[in-house]
Amino acid sequence: MPRRSPRPGSASAATAASTAAAPKRRVSARLSAGGDSKKRRLNAAYGDSDSARKSKAKRSSAKQNSSTLNKRGQSLKSREEAKGSDETQDATARPKGKELWREGVRTGLGPGKEVFIQKPKARDPGDTLYEDETLHPNTMLFLQDLKQNNDREWLKAHDADYRAAKKDWETFVESLTEKIIEKDETIPELPAKDVVFRIHRDVRFSKNPTPYKTHFSAAWSRTGKKGPYAAYYVHLEPEASFVGCGLWMPEAEKLALLREEVDQRSHRLKAILREANMRRVIFDGIPDEEREAVKAFVDQNKESSLKIKPKGYEVDNENILLLRLRSFTISKSLADVDLLGPTVQEKIATLIGTMEPFVTYLNKVVMPDPGAQDSTDESEDEDGASV
C-alpha cells in the first residue's frame, strides 16, 4: 500500500523535517571547517595575517637600514682615503714661507687647525735715511717689484713696502711744491692729496686688466692735478721717469682755441719753442731754426696727433703740422741715478723754470684771466706787425 505523507503541522511532519535538515548541517559544518583550515594554511604560507605583515615590514626595514649603513660606511671610508691622499700630497708639495699668503694654497692642516703666517715686513732701508727732499732707493725697488707682480694679492702681502714708498713719494712732492711755486707764482700751495695721482688704475674700459700703475706721479696747476689749466707733471718710474708740462688731450673747446691761435698767431708759439734754454735743455741742443723747433715739438706730441687735416683747415696750411696736434706738451727724461741723487729737486725745479713760459702761453690761450690784455698783442698793434 502506498505510504501516506504526514499532514502538515503534525508531529510526524516535524520529525521528518528535522531528519532531512541534519545531513545539510553536517555538510555545511564540514565545508566551513575545511575553508577555515585552508585560509589558515594560506595565511601561514603567504603572510596575509596582521602578525605576518608586521614581521615582514620589520624584516624589510632592518634590511634597508643595514644597506644604508653599509653605503654610509663605504662613503666615509672613501672620504677618509681621499682626505689622507690629499694630506699626503699637501705634505709633499706644501709651499714654503712666502708662498703661504696666496689664496688657494693648501697647508695640509685638518679641521680645527690653524696656521700663523708672518706677514712680510717693509724692506730694510739700510744706511740710507728717508728724507723729505730726496727719494729713497726702496721706493724705486718697490715699483720694480710691482711691475713684476701687478696683482692685488701681492700688493696686499707687501702692504708695508707700499705704504713706505707712498709716504716717501708724498713727502717728496710736498717739499718739491715749494720749489715749483718759486718758478711759477700762479701755482698755489696745495696738500699732496690734491697733486698726487692714485696708484689704482681704472680698468672698466681698458684692455689691460692689471689693477695698478707701475709708477708714481703728480701734477701742479692753478687747480692742482685736475682742472682746465696747463700743468707741470713729474713721473717716477724705473728707467722711464720724466718731467713734463702742457695740455694733454684737452677738451674740444680748448683744442679749438689752440688751433685758432696757431693758425692766426703761430709766431708766438714758435718764439717760445726757439728760446735758447728750450732748445738746449728740452730739445737736446737743436739749432736756432724755426723748422727744427717745430719738428722737435711735433715729434714729442705725434702719438696723439691726427693723420689728416683737422676740420675747417686746408691741407696746404703752412702750420698744418701744428694744427694736427691734439696735445700740446713738452717733456724731458730723467735717469734713475739723477732721481736718487741728493740734488734731484734742484734739477726738477730747473726744468720747471725752462717750461714756465710755455705753460704761461697755453693758459693765456685757453684760460685767459678776466680783463687781462695780452702785452704781445699791444706791441704788435703799435708796430703794425700784427699777423
From TrEMBL:
Compositionally biased tracts (Low complexity): 7-22
Pfam families cross-referenced by the UniProt entry: DUF2461
Organism: Penicilliopsis zonata CBS 506.65
Stretches the record annotates as Disordered: 1-106
Secretion signal, residue range per the UniProt entry: none
Compositionally biased tracts (Polar residues): 64-76
Ranges of biased composition (kind: Basic and acidic residues): 77-86, 96-105
NCBIfam families membership: TIGR02453 family protein
UniProt lineage: Eukaryota, Fungi, Dikarya, Ascomycota, Pezizomycotina
Protein name: TIGR02453 family protein
Taxonomic superkingdom: Eukaryota
InterPro entries: CHP02453
